[in-house]
Design a protein that fits this description.
This protein has 163 residues and is of the alpha+beta class. The chain contains 5 helices and 3 strands, in the order αββααβαα. It is 56% helix and 15% strand.
Length: 163
């Protein structure tokens, strides 16, 4: 196992190297407006995953993926030489769809805000279905229970409750 700090440094270096090579050395016309967003490398430094985004539609994304796959050998040899490792890490390219997820989350938040505004609008016009205070108050309960006890005392003859 390698030191986690060393692994992070190598991952950052892989990201920088791949971005540099893609920008300067790869002349594939299929390569679109690409941004290398992140790179992760395993603890044994054998496999690296490179995340990228592409500006454009699905066809631009597919053609960029094909261009990266065809340039994988050049990228791997450049990364291996620059890192100075015994084994060059194998590269895997993954389309980073964070922008799509952010747009989806923003849309969901906008829907929630609209729904909350609608609930607030309906609540402002709402009225109680019955009385504003549907429960008895304690003062009325005390008066009624006292009246009930005095009526029960009048009905019972004196001394009838004693043994």
């Amino acid at each position: 196992m390698s030191d986690p700090a060393k692994v992070r440094r190598h991952a950052e270096r892989v990201r920088e190297l791949v971005a540099s090579v893609v920008r300067s050395q790869i002349k594939d016309p299929r390569l679109g407006m690409i941004t290398i967003t992140d790179a992760r490398i395993t603890a044994d430094l054998r496999e690296a995953t490179v995340f990228y985004t592409v500006l454009g539609d699905a066809t631009a994304q597919a053609s960029t993926a094909a261009a990266l796959e065809s340039a994988k050998g050049l990228l791997r040899s450049t990364v291996g030489k620059a890192l100075g490792l015994r084994h060059s890490p194998s590269l895997t390219f993954v389309l980073d769809d964070v922008q799509d997820q952010v747009k989806q989350i923003d849309d969901l938040l906008a829907q929630a805000r609209n729904a909350d505004a609608e609930v607030q609008r309906l609540a402002a016009r709402a009225r109680y279905a019955g009385d504003a205070q549907p429960y008895r108050l304690d003062d009325e309960d005390a008066d009624e229970s006292a009246a009930d006890e005095s009526a029960a005392d009048e009905d019972t003859p004196r001394g009838a409750d004693r043994p």
